[in-house]
Amino acid sequence: MEHDETRQNHSSAPSVGRRSVLAGAGVATVAGLVGAAAAAPAAASPGAKPNAAMPVKFGADGRLRIVQFNDTQDTHLTDKRTIELIEKTLDAEKPGFVVINGDVINGGPPTATQVKQAYNNILAPIEERGIKFAITFGNHDEDSLGNNTGMTEQKLVDWMHDAYEHNLNPAVDPKLTGHSNGQILFKSSKTNKPAFGVWLLDSNRYAPGTIGGQSRDGLKNYDWIHSDQVQWYRETSIATEKRFGRKIPSLAYFHIPLWEHHHMWFGSQFGSDDATHAAAAKLHGIVGEKNEDVYVGAWNSGLFAAMQERGDVRGAYVGHDHINTYMGDYFGIELGYGPGTGYGAYGLSGAQQHRLRGARVFELDENVDGVYTGTRTVFASDLGIDTTPGNQRISEPAPLP
């Protein structure tokens, strides 16, 4: 099983050579077929309905801020600077909602208690400040099962519901692939209707060894957002529009990037030629860094096409590739990364190892057409946090709730 820590990192080059080459024509054919199926017109099913609860509310001034952390990825003895980064970001930005976008822990914890402690080190600063939050699962969040901890994603969701008053992770739908799918609507400060929304999607973990009876050698090692999840998003989006009489502008969060994150950077669907990046950067307004490959799922299941068809998603933001921080406008939908937050996970090379530890901030203002007004990154160095290489682990985990 391939893990993120095996990736080759380059701090100087704009991108790295591909460790797992996508198989050109064969993959293109599969992606086209699956994408076309996912985007096929369909009426909302009778069971599709928007989340009726609106636990997050815009401030009296009509504003609200979202903070994204991702890839905190550590054990129960989390690097103390990861916790400091979370605390200082929350205190400086004062968000109304936090999304932790996958890979909260690594596979190190040997017991169920230590799994909970690893999560709690990250969640406690948010809970203590009374901030509503939710997580999406990444590819590493169940790795501790290899140590017989028994802490499945389902058990993690159940535990968070019991332990944290401010956790908004939706109940797991057993009929839907994944364990962190959901819609969260933000209530307007002026009406009893939603002014904005967030889509949470589980991008799942690792791809199976064979697909359709054939080896996936040459494809990426990661899973993807499955067609039933894409259909769930589409049907729930339609039902939300029907209920409230308009499309609710939203942001989408999931861990593993889409193929379109790769396409946007290179300005080409199947190429990886940096010579084309300058034109793509100009066309899509790309800002930020790309220091490693875009580690997509094994194939494209059509989520981007569904989001573009529906027209309610303003941006789709991921983690997974810790040292990529770029974002841009890809044909009407922002695609981007939040920087890797955790000091315990891989980073850049040498003295720059922790230079890109940070978070991403999203600004909302319901007084402005479209509500979503922009995004920016916050790095540890901006907050005066030590970025010297190596680990500085806490000696004891925070007390469990």
Description:
This protein has 401 residues and is α/β, with parallel strands linked by helices. It has a single domain (42-383), classed as Purple Acid Phosphatase, chain A, domain 2. The protein has helices at 24-38, 80-93, 112-128, 153-163, 227-244, 259-266, 277-284, 303-310; strands at residues 56-57, 63-69, 97-101, 132-136, 182-187, 194-200, 210-211, 214-215, 250-253, 313-318, 327-330, 333-337, 358-365, 372-379. A seven-stranded mixed beta sheet has the order 1-5-6-9-10-12-11. Strands 4-3-2-13-14 form a five-stranded mixed beta sheet, covered by helices on one side. α2 runs parallel beside α3 (112-128) and α5 packs parallel to α8 (303-310). Pfam families: Metallophos (PF00149). It comes from Zhihengliuella halotolerans. One of its GO terms (cellular component) is cytoplasm. GO terms for molecular function: hydrolase activity, acting on ester bonds.
